[in-house]
Amino acid sequence: MDQTEQRERRRRHVPVEYGDAFSLAAEVREITGPLAEQIVAAPAPATFRLSVDRLAAEVEATVWVATQMLAESDAARRTRHIERVEDRQRATTILGAQVQRPAAPVISTADVVGGTWSALLTGYAEQVDADLAALLGRAVRPGQTRGRLSASERLVEALRGVDREGCAIERKLARPIETTRPATPSGLSAADELRALGVEL
């Protein structure tokens, strides 16, 4: 099953399990690339700025989830030799507190109008891509984690936020843009009715 099929299953809330073949950068590119192209071709690309910002925020959140999972795996490796459980937990907590959120790219209106925002987000996801794939390949499988979410399940939950905002942009693209000025109840434009009422404009 390729990532396109997995994405469709994820969006239908059908169980999906990711392994070492998964690429977060490819996932971001395949979701945002077509949207960027459609926005460029839309009558008013700049009006999608806030929608793109919301989608970018979800990509940032997903990269952060991946960063945290990688940090947790690294902490477990670095502390496994500590015999006393309390000391091992304390060391893990200290290591976790040192993890920094990767700086997200700044997306401008020009990026939205020019369609370059997709490449920015893809590059942002690239920084955790290989390590995340390796982690997914060796992680405990869903259903075998003793009540905790597996790495794959945590990733799926994060990506659903990306799906939500991506689908919101698709719906906005599908809506026709109203280009005429709204008329007043009389049927005249606001300017014409004001003139008829004696208001100087």
Main attributes of the structure:
65% helix; mainly alpha; 201 residues
SSE blueprint and pairings:
Blueprint: H1 3-11, H2 24-41, H3 49-79, H4 85-97, H5 109-114, H6 117-138, H7 151-174, H8 190-196
Précis, in short:
The chain is mostly helical.
- Could you tell me how far the N terminus lies from the C terminus, measured between alpha carbons in angstroms? 64 Å
What is the succession of H and E elements? Answer: HHHHHHHH
Q: Mean pLDDT, nearest integer? A: 89
Anisotropy-based shape:
elongated
* Structural category: mainly alpha
Task: Outline the low-pLDDT stretches.
Answer: none
Sheet-strand content, in percent, reads under 5%
Q: Tell me the total number of β-strands.
A: 0
Tally the helices: what do you get?
8
Q: State the helical fraction.
A: 55-70%
Return Rg in Å. 23 Å
Task: Please describe the biggest sheet, giving its number of strands, its sense, and whether it closes into a barrel.
Answer: none
